[in-house]
């Protein structure tokens, strides 16, 4: 028992050094050297490409119905027969319809992370007429813009097709 | 169509893991890798362990327990003292006593149930030096126990079942660390974070948004959380968070990492008991159960969310509440089923917001005892206990003393296996009953109606099975849930490990009975069917009433909302 105790303490210290310090620090060194942009959060002039933001008003493409607070990630955790969820959905649908946007399911539902940066291509197409009207741009140009931004599934089969809302809006801002 | 290819790719990659990682683990645990001996020798010298000196099952078990107790104390200490320790750029204060206690027990038992939010609770030292270290070591303990039980079946007239310290060191530095090291680099390349620089402030002139982005050494922890079937996220959102699981590729690799060791261990088992076919039979049971549960979940999630359906919005993408756009409903279902059929518990979508049947699939996946394929090590020793019960039932049917792998299965073996199988359901049901009866428990659920009951049942099922996933709506970070949960965590781990090791010790001493015409062949479809049936019947009989009160009522309450 006493021998076990000594071994347990010694081996815990050894593994603390190998697994708790050497391993993550080595990975940090490799990550910072080889993939500096990704390892630090994929930051651009307008935020992180990976993290969703709240876009207000008809002149922008909107994302998922998330809180978009990276310090409080997670989903709504409301169950499939939650009255609160039903009320939230009704409220969001009314808000979208007021802006002339077809309430696509992506724009009404919240994601699992609470900071989803993407929407499905169909959810982006559903917003084109509202954005076109607000900005005085032709729907054809916006259609081409969205089409250019459709990514995935990765390698043709991993995950689902999606559009990054930040990248889409960044390019939208440059259109005249 | 894309999803069909995902499944094909997964099967191919796992087949390779099964054959090659499985064979590699035989070499590692039998100490035949001489070229590796140089690496481990200094560690044995430091702890004064002789790699050739073996332990009886009692000594093996006491080493497991003493080691886990020390790991628990060290982790608890780091959480409580983190504000005075280095690697704390965001100035996290010490963790509350009951949260620190629950978390330490949770990570040492390979559960990774998290009642806290990582982004606002843990310093980098706590994440790297306590949580991630335990992700490695608790996994290595599970693998060690599995290998010890396999030795019990493989040996004849032996008093010993291996040396815990040697198995612990070998599993960690030869199996877990190299795979994690390579996988982490891939994760970083995809966009998982790996930095010690603290949070970042960003603002966007286009929309006036400003955000605080918590960061950290995430990729190194993310990969071992999957590989070791631990599951505890760096952030609250776990694998749904884009900084942990950024792309379709990392989502797929997460699933591969979770499944590779549990699947490969069936090869290791077959090889060590001198019959690969025995390992294939076990793997076949796991595959049948896994396939059934995946189908149930994927079909349910394709149906869409009942609350959204009530508003009339069409849902061609399936139920997307709580799911990430880049994964979609199908890949999310695959990830969450994988995680609940093993003892992982990481999620890439909010379990609480799955459809009633989807949520039931995750809940009942754990209730079967997590043997399809189960956690690293825990899956193999779990299903071997079910196998002992299966040959016992088979023996009763034909009136013959049962055998498994040439070992006579007698009263002691059946009692130990039954104990190992029954601890979990008893603990889950008693704790759930207590929580639904007292005010401190009833205060927990976010959702009303049957879904609220499911949240409580899920919490104890998850902790006692050492899974760690949750119906996240439950407010579990209270002294009541943290303390009662710890009871489930400890019983679900050690009240199964000790019978498993006792079983190993007894079996190792036995001699082998020669196979005869009357022997019930355990490498044939008949056995696969019977074992699958035993797992389903034990889980079904114990849990059906409880499940009926939660997800089944919810599914049948068409058009009702609470």
Automatic annotation (TrEMBL), chain A:
Region feature (Disordered): 61-81
Subcellular location: Cell membrane
Keywords carried by this UniProt record: ATP-binding, Cell membrane, Ion transport, Membrane, Nucleotide-binding, Potassium, Potassium transport, Transmembrane, Transmembrane helix, Transport
GO cellular component: plasma membrane
Membrane topology (UniProt): Single-pass membrane protein
Highest taxon of source: Bacteria
Family: Belongs to the KdpC family.
Function: Part of the high-affinity ATP-driven potassium transport (or Kdp) system, which catalyzes the hydrolysis of ATP coupled with the electrogenic transport of potassium into the cytoplasm. This subunit acts as a catalytic chaperone that increases the ATP-binding affinity of the ATP-hydrolyzing subunit KdpB by the formation of a transient KdpB/KdpC/ATP ternary complex.
Name this polypeptide is given: Potassium-transporting ATPase KdpC subunit
UniProt source species: Planotetraspora mira
Organism lineage: Bacteria, Bacillati, Actinomycetota, Actinomycetes, Streptosporangiales
UniProtKB/TrEMBL annotation, chain B:
Subcellular location: Cell membrane
Membrane-crossing residue ranges in chain numbering: 6-29, 60-79, 131-150, 171-193, 249-268, 280-300, 376-396, 416-438, 480-507, 527-553
Chief location bin: membrane
GO molecular function: P-type potassium transmembrane transporter activity; potassium ion binding
Database matches in InterPro entries: KdpA
Keywords: Cell membrane, Ion transport, Membrane, Potassium, Potassium transport, Transmembrane, Transmembrane helix, Transport
Source organism, top-level taxon: Bacteria
GO cellular component, one term: plasma membrane
Leader peptide range in chain numbering: none
UniProt entry tagged with the keyword Cell membrane: yes
Membrane topology (UniProt): Multi-pass membrane protein
NCBIfam families listed in its UniProt record: kdpA (TIGR00680)
Assembly and oligomerization: The system is composed of three essential subunits: KdpA, KdpB and KdpC.
Family: Belongs to the KdpA family.
Protein task: Part of the high-affinity ATP-driven potassium transport (or Kdp) system, which catalyzes the hydrolysis of ATP coupled with the electrogenic transport of potassium into the cytoplasm. This subunit binds the extracellular potassium ions and delivers the ions to the membrane domain of KdpB through an intramembrane tunnel.
Protein known as: Potassium-transporting ATPase potassium-binding subunit
Organism: Planotetraspora mira
Organism lineage string: Bacteria, Bacillati, Actinomycetota, Actinomycetes, Streptosporangiales
Encoding gene, per UniProt annotation: kdpA_3
């Amino acid at each position: 028992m006493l021998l076990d105790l000594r071994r347990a303490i010694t081996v815990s210290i050894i593994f603390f050094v190998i697994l708790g310090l050497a391993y993550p620090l080595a990975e940090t060194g490799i990550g910072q050297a080889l993939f500096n942009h990704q390892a630090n959060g994929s930051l651009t002039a307008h935020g992180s490409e990976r993290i969703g933001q709240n876009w207000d008003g008809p002149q922008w493409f909107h994302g998922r119905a998330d809180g978009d607070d990276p310090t409080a990630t997670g989903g709504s955790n409301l169950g499939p027969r939650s009255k609160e969820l039903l009320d939230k959905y009704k409220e969001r649908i009314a808000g979208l319809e007021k802006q002339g946007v077809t309430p696509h399911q992506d724009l009404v539902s919240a994601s699992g992370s609470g900071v989803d940066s993407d929407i499905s291509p169909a959810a982006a197409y559903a917003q084109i007429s509202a954005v076109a009207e607000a900005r005085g741009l032709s729907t054809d140009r916006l259609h081409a813009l969205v089409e250019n931004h459709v990514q995935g599934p990765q390698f043709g089969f991993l995950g689902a097709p999606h559009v990054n809302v930040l990248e889409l809006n960044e390019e939208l801002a440059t259109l005249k | 169509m894309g999803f069909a290819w995902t499944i094909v790719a997964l099967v191919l990659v796992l087949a390779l893991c099964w054959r090659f990682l499985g064979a590699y683990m035989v070499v590692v645990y039998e100490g035949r890798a001489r070229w590796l001996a140089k690496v481990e020798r200094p560690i044995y010298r430091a702890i004064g362990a002789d790699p050739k000196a073996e332990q009886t099952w009692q000594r093996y078990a006491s080493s497991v327990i003493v080691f886990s107790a020390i790991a628990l104390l060290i982790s608890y200490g780091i959480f409580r003292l983190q504000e005075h320790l280095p690697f704390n750029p965001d100035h996290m204060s010490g963790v509350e006593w009951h949260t620190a206690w629950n978390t330490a027990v949770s990570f040492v038992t390979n559960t990774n149930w998290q009642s806290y939010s990582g982004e606002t609770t843990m310093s980098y030292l706590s994440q790297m030096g306590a949580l991630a270290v335990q992700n490695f070591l608790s996994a290595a303990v599970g693998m060690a126990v599995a290998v010890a039980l396999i030795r019990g079946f493989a040996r004849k007239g032996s008093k010993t079942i291996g040396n815990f310290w040697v198995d612990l060191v070998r599993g960690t530095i030869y199996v877990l660390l190299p795979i994690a090291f390579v996988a982490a680099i891939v994760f970083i390349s995809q966009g998982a974070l790996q930095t010690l620089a603290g949070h970042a402030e960003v603002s966007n002139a286009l929309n006036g948004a400003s955000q605080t982005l918590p960061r950290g050494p995430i990729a190194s922890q993310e990969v071992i959380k999957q590989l070791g079937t631990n599951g505890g996220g760096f952030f609250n959102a776990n694998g749904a968070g884009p900084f942990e699981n950024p792309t379709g590729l990392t989502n797929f690799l997460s699933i591969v990492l979770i499944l590779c060791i549990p699947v490969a261990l069936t090869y290791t088992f077959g090889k060590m008991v001198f019959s690969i076919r025995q390992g294939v039979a076990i793997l076949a049971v796991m595959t049948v159960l896994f396939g059934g549960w995946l189908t149930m979940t994927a079909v349910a999630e394709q149906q869409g969310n009942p609350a959204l359906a009530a508003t009339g919005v069409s849902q061609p993408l399936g139920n997307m509440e709580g799911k990430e756009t880049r994964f979609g409903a199908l890949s999310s279902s695959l990830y969450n089923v994988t995680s609940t059929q093993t003892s992982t518990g990481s999620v890439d979508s909010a379990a609480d917001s799955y459809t009633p049947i989807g949520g039931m699939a995750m809940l009942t996946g754990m209730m079967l005892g997590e043997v399809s394929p189960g956690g690293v090590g825990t899956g193999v020793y779990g299903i071997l206990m079910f196998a002992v019960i299966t040959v016992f039932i088979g023996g009763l049917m034909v009136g013959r003393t049962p055998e498994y792998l040439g070992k006579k299965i007698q009263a002691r073996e059946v009692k130990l296996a039954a104990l190992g199988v029954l601890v979990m359901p008893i603990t889950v049901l008693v704790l759930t009953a207590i929580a639904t009866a007292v005010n401190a428990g009833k205060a927990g659920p976010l959702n009303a109606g049957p879904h609220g009951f499911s949240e409580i049942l899920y919490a104890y099922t998850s902790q006692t099975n050492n899974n760690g996933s949750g119906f996240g709506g439950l407010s579990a970070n209270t002294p009541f849930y943290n303390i009662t949960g710890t009871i489930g965590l400890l019983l679900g781990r050690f009240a199964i490990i000790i019978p498993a090791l006792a079983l190993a010790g007894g079996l190792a001493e036995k001699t082998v009975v020669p196979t005869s015409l009357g022997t019930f062949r355990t490498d044939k479809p008949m056995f696969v069917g019977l074992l699958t049936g035993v797992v389903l019947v034990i889980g079904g009989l114990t849990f059906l009433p409880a499940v009926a009160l939660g997800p089944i009522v919810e599914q049948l309450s068409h058009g009702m909302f609470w």
